[in-house]
Structures are given as structure tokens and as C-alpha cells.
């Protein structure tokens, strides 16, 4: 229907019908996180803008072009969170969570904001299920979180996804690679897209995941990062591959996976799908061993990922059949006095976790029964003058097969007994 206002472009209303799928996916995210020993937490929707500049990186698209930022009345510069890792790290440092026994395993389901050009699967406000694991240097940490993402996607029966993994090395070995990459692309400086011309000196690694046609052919012959990583990074990467092989998690090594955030070290990975067009990444993550120290706490290794829930919904919509919890009973009434009684019965039933609906619209008995049918109530009854006098009411199953006479006084107790039989 036409309305004066619409939701802002790039945002989505989640209507009751869609929420069933959201709830289903969120339940599976929680169940899988708990299976791997992760605990849920939440951070504020906005943070000091400097946190994201320092963590995500000044030269990234997120910081340069995509943050929703504003000043509060005291002139403090804030930004709606564009991602979760920086905020979770800030909170774990602030509350001393990294001082207790490690590993610390956190998961979150939060909304994020990026001022990107909206298209299918890319929104200005979107949701992620994310995990962050602190304290483990070994590649088994990457394996555990990849295994968690894999188990989550499998349980949702998400088809046609590929896991791509890569190593972007540590601060030391990456320097050599970035130097060679820049030298290589300088030769094609005039031919690459405008964005890549900027990336050449601001963020050269990102040259590798440019999606523009004109840059494709240059990428093909670009130096391969895996030939540049140091012995330690190479062993780490091979160890991860061993864990994945042993546990039958299929993957491809893809040297073009570099990720759009600056904090990564060593392993980076993405789960991509063939069924979403250009926005094909449904999960992205990796190791970020330097970030915690960069934000002022003692050096602590960390790994994590974020799954884009809106993209998952696009993939799964129409594929999952979920039913509403149907009402156990509709308690109708013919007049005001009966409605008072119906309200007390409903309160007592709900106290016993029995899903109950009653008449909110002063409808005729016929309309009330129509409504009870529409909401697929299992049982119904109508309270009127007669029932109040007799202090009992006839409860019928909507299929018409069962019929019970129940005392109004002990309605909730007696009805619960019927339901249990
Ligand atoms: P990211 O790759 O920027 O990583 O985002 C993770 C996932 O969020 C993407 O794979 C995608 O599914 C979804 N996503 C990103 N942007 C949008 C958008 N505009 N609209 C809809 N979905 C989107 C991170 O955010 C890292 N914090 C992940 C991480 C956690 N790394 C380590 N720990």
C-alpha cells in the first residue's frame, strides 16, 4: 500500500512471515556456537570513529567511503558500526576479558551499517552472525572456526558453497610481496580502473580482488602471495590445510582472497556461493594477531569470521518451510461480562505455557469462530451468560472430533490435562 514514508534505500523491514526464517537461522547459529563453546555478547550500535579507522584501516573502502558518521552534541565523532571485530576487541579489552583464562570464545548476532550502493545482497544496514576466538596461535584455531561456519551452513543445507582459503603472511613477509605487487601493477597503471589506480599506493593488496573486467587480465599474471610468505607463515598455512583435509572439509587455495579490512595476518578465508550474483561472499574471516596490541592491550592472537545473514536469507527463502506455533485454544466471549472471565482464563492458561487467543474486537460468535479457524487454533470455546450461570463451558477441537465440558473455575488445570492426554 502507498504510504507517506518508506524505509530508507538499502534497508529492509523484516516482516513476521520473514522473521520465522530469521529465527530459525539464528537458533541454528546459537546452537552451533554453543556446541563449539562460544558465548554470546553484544556491543553498542555506535562507537568512537577512531576505533574503526585504526582497526579496519584508513585506506580501506569501509573507512574512506562507507561509514555513517556523526558528531554528538559535545562534538564527539562517532560512527555506526560497519563491522563487529573492532567493537568486540574494544569491549574485551575494556572489560578485562582477555586477562582471564584463554582461549576466549565470543559470538554475536548484530546489525552493521555501510554506506554502499545497494543491490541484491548488498545493503546499507545488514546483519552478521560473527565469532571471535582470542588467545590461540595455532592453526587449529582457524580450523575450529572454519569448522563451526561449515557445520552451521551444512545444518542449514546451504548448497553450492565453496570455501576459499589463502595466507596473506605476517607484517614481515607481506612487505616483500606488496613491493613486488606494486612494481608489477605500476606497469599497467594507465590501463587499470580508477579505483585500482588509487589502490596501487593506498591499499595494493586490494588490487587482487577488483571485480572490474579491465583489471581481470592483469590480475591473472600478478605475483602469487603464497610464493612470498615466510617459512613460519607457510608452515602455519600447511597445518591448517592438514586439519581441513583430515576432517573432510573441502576447500580451494585461492591467492586472490585478500579481504577488505586491514587487520588480517596469515590466514584469510571466504565461503562463496554460485547463487547470489555479484555479492557472492556469505562468510568472510581470518586471523588478526596484531589488532589487540594495536588497540593498546598486550599482544594476543585472534581469529574470527562474519556470516552475512541477509545473504543467507536470500539463499534460503522459499526453501525452508517453518510453521508458526499454532494456538492451543481460542477462548471467545459473547458479552462484556463473559469477556472479563475469558481474560482471566487466558491469563491462567498462558501461565501454564498454553498458547491462547481471545476476542479483542467484540466480534459476533460467528466471526469469532471464523477467526479461530483462520489462526488454526486446536480447540475453541465461547463463554456466554449460560456458561457463566452453569460455571462450565464446552470446549471443542476445531476438527470437530472431540468435545469436553470443563469447569470455568478450574479451566486452565483441566484443559492442560486434556492437552497432555
Ligand atoms: P566482511 O567480509 O566485511 O567481514 O563481512 C562479512 C560478511 O558480511 C560478508 O561475507 C557478507 O556476507 C556480509 N556483508 C558485508 N557487507 C554487506 C552488505 N553491505 N550487505 C549485506 N551483507 C554484507 C567482516 O565484517 C569481518 N568483521 C569478519 C571477521 C570477523 N573477521 C574476523 N572476525
Explain this structure.
With 421 residues, this protein is α+β, with helices and mostly antiparallel strands. It has helices at 16-35, 49-56, 61-66, 85-94, 140-155, 171-186, 194-202, 213-220, 231-246, 291-294, 309-316, 336-351, 365-374, 385-390, 411-420; strands spanning 39-40, 46-48, 69-71, 77-80, 104-113, 125-134, 161-167, 252-253, 265-273, 281-287, 302-308, 329-333, 356-358, 379-383, 392-397, 403-407. The chain folds into two domains: 16-170 and 229-316, Bira Bifunctional Protein, Domain 2 (BirA Bifunctional Protein, domain 2), CATH 3.30.930; 329-420, Rossmann fold, CATH 3.40.50. The chain has an eight-stranded mixed sheet. Helix 5 (140-155) runs parallel beside helix 9. The longest helix has 20 residues, at 16-35. The model has no long low-confidence stretch (mean pLDDT 95). The structure holds histidyl-adenosine monophosphate (HAM).
Biggest beta sheet attributes: 8 strands, mixed
Oligomer: single chain
User: Got a strand count?
Assistant: 16
Given as residue ranges, the uncertain stretches (5+ residues, pLDDT < 50) are none
Bound molecules: histidyl-adenosine monophosphate
Describe the structure concisely.
With 421 residues, the protein is an alpha+beta fold. The protein is 39% helix and 21% strand.
Amino acid at each position: 500500500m502507498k504510504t507517506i514514508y518508506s524505509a530508507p534505500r538499502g534497508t529492509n523491514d523484516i516482516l513476521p512471515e520473514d522473521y520465522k526464517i530469521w529465527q530459525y537461522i539464528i537458533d541454528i547459529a546459537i546452537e552451533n556456537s554453543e556446541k563449539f563453546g562460544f558465548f554470546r555478547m553484544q556491543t553498542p550500535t555506535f562507537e568512537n570513529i577512531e576505533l574503526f579507522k585504526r582497526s579496519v584501516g584508513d585506506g580501506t573502502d569501509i573507512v574512506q567511503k562507507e561509514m555513517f558518521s556523526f558528531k554528538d552534541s559535545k562534538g564527539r565523532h562517532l560512527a555506526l558500526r560497519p563491522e563487529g571485530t573492532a567493537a568486540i576487541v574494544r569491549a574485551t579489552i575494556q572489560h578485562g576479558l582477555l586477562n582471564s583464562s584463554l582461549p576466549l570464545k565470543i559470538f554475536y548476532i548484530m546489525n552493521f551499517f555501510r554506506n554502499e550502493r545497494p543491490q541484491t545482497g548488498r545493503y546499507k544496514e545488514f546483519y552478521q552472525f560473527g565469532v571471535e576466538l582470542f588467545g590461540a596461535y595455532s592453526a587449529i584455531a582457524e580450523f575450529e572456526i572454519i569448522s563451526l561456519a561449515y557445520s552451521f551452513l551444512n545444518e542449514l543445507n546451504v548448497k553450492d558453497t565453496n570455501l576459499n582459503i589463502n595466507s596473506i603472511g605476517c607484517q614481515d613477509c607481506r612487505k616483500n610481496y606488496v613491493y613486488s605487487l606494486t612494481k608489477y601493477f605500476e606497469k599497467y597503471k594507465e590501463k587499470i580502473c580508477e579505483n585500482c589506480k588509487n589502490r596501487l599506493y593506498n591499499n595494493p593488496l586490494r588490487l587482487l580482488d577488483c571485480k572490474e573486467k579491465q583489471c581481470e587480465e592483469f590480475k591473472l599474471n600478478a605475483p602469487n602471495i603464497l610464493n612470498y610468505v615466510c617459512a613460519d607463515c607457510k608452515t602455519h598455512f600447511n597445518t591448517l590445510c592438514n586439519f581441513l583435509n583430515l576432517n573432510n572439509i573441502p576447500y580451494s587455495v585461492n591467492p586472490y582472497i585478500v579481504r577488505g579490512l586491514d587487520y588480517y595476518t596469515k590466514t584469510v578465508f571466504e565461503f562463496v556461493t554460485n547463487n547470489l550474483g555479484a555479492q557472492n561472499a556469505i562468510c568472510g574471516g581470518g586471523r588478526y594477531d596484531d589488532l589487540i596490541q594495536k588497540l593498546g592491550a598486550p599482544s594476543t592472537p585472534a581469529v574470527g569470521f562474519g556470516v552475512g545473514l541477509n545473504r543467507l536469507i536470500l539463499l534460503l527463502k522459499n526453501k525452508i518451510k517453518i510453521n508458526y506455533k499454532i494456538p492451543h485454544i481460542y477462548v471467545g466471549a459473547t458479552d462484556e461480562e463473559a469477556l472479563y472471565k475469558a481474560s482471566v482464563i487466558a491469563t491462567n492458561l498462558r501461565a501454564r505455557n498454553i498458547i491462547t487467543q481471545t476476542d479483542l474486537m467484540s466480534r459476533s460468535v460467528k466471526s469469532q469462530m471464523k477467526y479461530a479457524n483462520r489462526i488454526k487454533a486446536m480447540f475453541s470455546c465461547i463463554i456466554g451468560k449460560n456458561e457463566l450461570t452453569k460455571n462450565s463451558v464446552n470446549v471443542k477441537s476445531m476438527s470437530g472430533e472431540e468435545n469436553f465440558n470443563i469447569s470455568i473455575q478450574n479451566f486452565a488445570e483441566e484443559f492442560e490435562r486434556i492437552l497432555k492426554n
